[in-house]
Write a structure and sequence with these properties.
Blueprint lengths: L2 E4 L3 E8 L1 H5 L6 E7 L2 E7 L1 H7 L6 E4 L2 H4 L1 H5 L2 E4 H12 L1
Parallel strand pairs: 2-4, 3-5
Antiparallel strand pairs: 1-2, 2-6, 3-4
The protein binds zinc ion (ZN) (2 copies).
The site of one zinc ion has 7 residues, from helix 5.
């Protein structure tokens, strides 16, 4: 996992989100976690991306091989500040 320089939070861990979520915070994110030998690495997609790429449309854990199976979907993800994104995400999901 990388680190990003956030104007608000300084050096923060990145969250990987789809291009729509990176620019439009009104969309509802769905969290898909990749299971890397026990470490759950979260990735967020909007519902359009889930449909477009045939990903599960509910929060779930996927095996590491999903990154290759859904290569186009994961290649499109953008890094954003994990602290900012998680705040927005929690504000939406309660
Ligand atoms: Zn999207
Ligand atoms: Zn931030």
């Amino acid at each position: 996992m990388g680190v990003i320089l956030c104007p608000e939070h300084g050096r923060a861990g990145i969250a990987l989100v789809c291009p729509h979520l990176a620019t439009n915070t009104d969309r509802t994110p769905t969290r898909l976690q990749i299971d890397l030998s026990g470490f759950k690495w979260p990735h967020w997609f909007c519902s359009d991306c889930l449909k477009q790429f045939g990903l599960p449309e509910f929060e779930t854990d996927l095996p590491e091989t999903a990154v290759e199976s859904y290569q186009d979907a994961f290649a499109a993800l953008r890094p954003v500040c994990g602290v900012c994104f998680t705040k927005q995400y929690e504000a939406k999901t309660g």
